[in-house]
Amino acid sequence: MANLLTKILRMGEGRKVKVLQQRVGAVTALEPEIEKLSDDELRAKTDEFRKRIAEGEALDDLLPEAFAVVREASRRTLGMRPFDVQVMGGIALHEGKISEMKTGEGKTLAATMPVYLNALSGKGVHVVTVNDYLARRDAGWMGEVYSFLGLTVGLVQESMDFDQRKEAYSADITYGTNAQFGFDYLRDNIATSTEQLVQRPLSYAIVDEVDSILIDEARTPLIISGMPESAADIYYRFAAIMPRLKAGEDYETDEKKRQVAPTESGVEKVEKALGVENLYDDVNTNLVNHLNQALRAQTLFHKDKEYIVRDGQVYIVDEFTGRVLEGRRYSEGLHQAIEAKEGVQIREENQTVATVTIQNFFRMYDKLSGMTGTAATEADEFMHTYKMEVVSIPTHREMIRLDEDDLVYKTKAFKHKAVVEDIVERHKKGQPVLVGTVSVDVSEHLSGMLKRRGIKHNVLNAKQHEREAETILEAGEKGAVTIATNMAGRGTDIKLGEGVEELGGLYVLGTERHESRRIDNQLRGRSGRQGDPGESRFYLSFEDDLLRLFGGQRMQGLIERIGLEEDVPIEAGMISSSVRRAQEQVESRNFQMRKRILEYDDVLNKQREVIYGIRRDILMGENVDTIEYVEDVLTQVVSEYASADVYPEEWDLDSLQAEINRFYPATVDLKSLDVETLTGEQVRELVLKDARARLEDRKAEWDERMAELERRGLARTDGVASFEEAERRTLLSVVDSRWREHLYEMDYLREGIGWRGLSQRDPLVEYKREGFDIFQEMERGLKEDYVTYIYRIENVKLREEEMQQYSYSGGTEEPNERPKSPRRADAKVGRNDPCPCGSGKKFKKCHGQPGAPPLNVPISSTDAPDLRTG
C-alpha cells in the first residue's frame, strides 16, 4: 500500500520539472538587465520590492526579479552563480515543497533565493539546520549575500543568552537548529511578560536535511521540565534485581517490536526481593512501572549502541545519525533505569512544564518547505503529516558513481575481516575510503582491527561529534580512511583531493544495511557529487539485526540450501530483494509509530492551542473579563445547590452559603431567603449581583492603595500598576499552575491507556474522550482558582510596609484581614480526601501538591499568588 501511494505521489514528475524549467527561463531572461546594475542599484532593489509588496503585489509575481537579483548578488559576493537546477530547487522551496537535490548539488545556495524573497515581507524567515555548526557556517557564508542586499541575519545557538536570542529573532532571516527554535517557542509560552518573549509569529521556515529533522527526530518530543521528584533508591534496587532474572523463564522479549514483559515467575522473584506481598496492589502501582523500565533497560538498551556513558552520565545516541542527543532523556523513568543499570548517579525525575512534538511545532508555520538528498522514500509521510509535496530536482551533471552489489557473509566476524581487507587494499593504492557503521561499538571494533594492521584513520561517532564537520572535509584526500557512524558530517560536502579522481574517487563502504533505505542512500550519496567518480558497496552478514529479525524463513532456507561457508560471500538478487522487503517493513512500522504519536499529540495540541492562546492574550495586554469568570463559577455553584430542576424546599441554602463564601466574601444572606417566593434564576441573580458589587469594592480598595503608594513615592515598585494588571498576572499564574498539573495528568493517562485495548476498546478513542474530560475539569478548576484569588489579592509592596509598621506597634494580626487559624494534619491524609485546610479541594490538588506549604503552617483563604513574580 505504501509503495502504491508513493508511486501515485511521484506521478507527473516530468511535468513538474518542465514547469520549474519554464519559471527558471523567466529568471534567466532578466539576467542581462540585472547584471548592468551597480552595487548600489542592486541593493536598492530590496527597497523597491518591499514597496511593491506594501502596495499589494504578490510574492509569486516578484519571484523572477527577486531570484535574478539574488543570483547576481551571489555571483558578486561569493563568486558563485546558482545553476538552473539550483534555481528550480529554490522555486520549489518558495512553493512550500520539498526539494530533493542530490548531495553536492548546492542546496545551501539554492535556499538563498526563496529566503530572500520571503524575507521581503518583513515577517521573518527561519532556516533550520541539523546542528549548531551548520547553522553558524551557513549564517556566516550565505549571510554575505543577504547583507549585500540590505537584509539582516540572525543566528540562534545553544550557548546564547536571552538578549542575544531576542536580537537574532528580530532579524529578517534567522538560522538555528530545530531544537533551538522549538525550545524557544516553548519558553515563550511559559513567559510571564512580553519582555520575556523572543520569537515573532511563525511565518516561513526552510528545513535543511528535512528528512532527518521532520522524520527521524519526529518521535522525540521537545520537553521543558521542572519540579524534581526523587526516587533514586528504588531504581538502584531494581537494577540489582534484574541480573538475577532469566530470559524465557522470568521474562519474555520481542526484539522485533522492542517489547519485554515479566512472567509470573519473574514477578514472584521481584516481589520476594522487594519484600512486597503483591506488586500489583494499588499502593504499589509505581513499582510495576519501575519493573517494566528496569527490564527494558536491561534487555533492549545496550551501551555504545542506544546510549553511551561519558563523564558519569548516560547520553542517548541518535539511531539515525550516531550523534549524541544533548539534553535529551528517555521518558517514563527509562533513563533513570539505565543510569541505575550503569551505576552512575541518577538525575532526578522532572515534571513536564511545556512540551510539543517536532511534527506539531513545524505544522504551526504559515508556510513550510524543506530540502534533502533523500526524501522520495518518505514522500507519502511528508504529504500525510505536513502536506508537503516532494519534487526531485535533476542533477547539474550526470551521476557516474558505481554502486556495487551487496556482499553477504554468514557471520559478522568474517564480514568484518573482509571489510578490513577491502580497506587495506584500497588504502594501498591511495583511494580514500569512507566506512559507514550503524553503531558506536562497530566503529570502534573496526578501528581496533585497522590499528592492528597499521592503517592510519579517523573515527567519527557520537563520542567525537564535535570535530565531525572538520574531519569529514578531509575524507576525500588521497589515502584517507574515515570511519563514520551513519551520517556523521551530514550537511558537509566531501571534496576530492588532488589525484583522487584517477583512483576512482571516494569509496563508500557500508558495514550493515540500516532499517531505512533513505539512510543507506544518504551514506552512498557522500560519493559521486557533481559528476565526480565514486564507488559504493555494502557488506552484510546473516547475523545483522535487519536480516536476523526481518529476513524471515526465506532467508534462513536460503542459508541452509546453499550451505554457505563462513569466509565466502554471496551476491544474489534474492538477498537484495529480501533486504529491500525487510527495510520496507521496518519503514512502514516506524511510519505507523510516528503517525500514532502524532495522533495522540494532536489531542494535547488542541488543548495547548487553547491555553497558549489565553496566555498570549494576557501577555499582549488584553484585559481579563473577570466578571465572566465569576459568573461562570457562581452559576455552576448555584445550580448545584438551588437547581431549577428540584423543588425550592429541597434547596440546600446552608451549603450554598458556605460554598459562595469560599469563592468571595459574600454579604448576601441566603439562609434568610423566602424560597417560596423565589426561583432558582432569582437566587443566581442575587448571588451574581452581590459578587459584582464585592468585586467593584475590591477594585476601589486597590485604587485607594495605589493612590497611597503614589503619595509615598512607591508607585510601580512591585511591578503592579493597576488592578487590571493584577488580574492579568493572577490569571497567568493560575493558568500555568493548572496547565502543569494537567500535563502531569495527561502523561499519567497516556502511560496506561494502551491497556484499554485488552477490553476491545480503541486506546486512542479512549484517550481523546478522557483527555477531553480532564481538560474540562482543568478549565473548571482554573476558573475556580482565579475567582478565589482575585477577591483576595493584595498589593504586595504596600502590604509589606503596613506589616512592618504594624509589627512596631506590637500587634499580632495583619490589618484588613481576618485572623488566620492554624490547622494541623493529625493523621495521614489520603490523596483523594478533602484537604484539612478547608479549601474544599482534594488533598492532592491542594496541600498535597509539590511545593505546597505543610499543613501545620497557618493557612488562610487569603493566600494568593505573589504578584511580584506573577
Q: Describe it for me?
A:
The protein has 870 residues and is an alpha/beta fold. The chain folds into 5 domains: 2-220 and 360-390, 3-Layer(aba) Sandwich (Rossmann fold), CATH 3.40.50.300; 231-347, Pre-protein croslinking domain of SecA (Alpha-Beta Complex), CATH 3.90.1440.10; 402-571, P-loop containing nucleotide triphosphate hydrolases (Rossmann fold, 3-Layer(aba) Sandwich); 626-818, Orthogonal Bundle (Helical scaffold and wing domains of SecA); 819-870, no CATH class. It is built from 31 helices and 20 strands. The strands form 5 sheets. Strands 3-4-2-5-12-1-13 form a 7-stranded parallel beta sheet, sandwiched between helices. Strands 14, 15, 16, 17, 18, 19 and 20 form a 7-stranded parallel beta sheet that branches. Helix 21 (468-473) links the parallel strand 17 (458-460) and strand 18 (481-485). The chain starts with a helix and ends in a 62-residue tail after the last helix. The model is unreliable at 802-828 and 853-870 (pLDDT under 50). InterPro entries: Helicase_ATP-bd, Helicase_C-like, P-loop_NTPase, SEC_C_motif, SecA, SecA_CS, SecA_DEAD, SecA_motor_DEAD. Residues 419-570 form the Helicase C-terminal domain.
Largest sheet: 7 strands, parallel
CATH class of the largest domain: Alpha Beta
What's the domain count? Answer: 5
- Strand-pairing-aware structural class: alpha/beta
**CATH H-level name of the largest domain... which superfamily?**
P-loop containing nucleotide triphosphate hydrolases
What is the gyration radius calculated from CA atoms? 33 Å
Shape: globular
The tally of helices reads 31
How many angstroms does the end-to-end distance come to?
A: 53 Å
Number of strands: 20
Instruction: Describe the strand arrangement of the main beta sheet, using strand numbers.
Output: 3-4-2-5-12-1-13
- CATH fold-type name of the largest domain: Rossmann fold
Report strand %. 5-15%
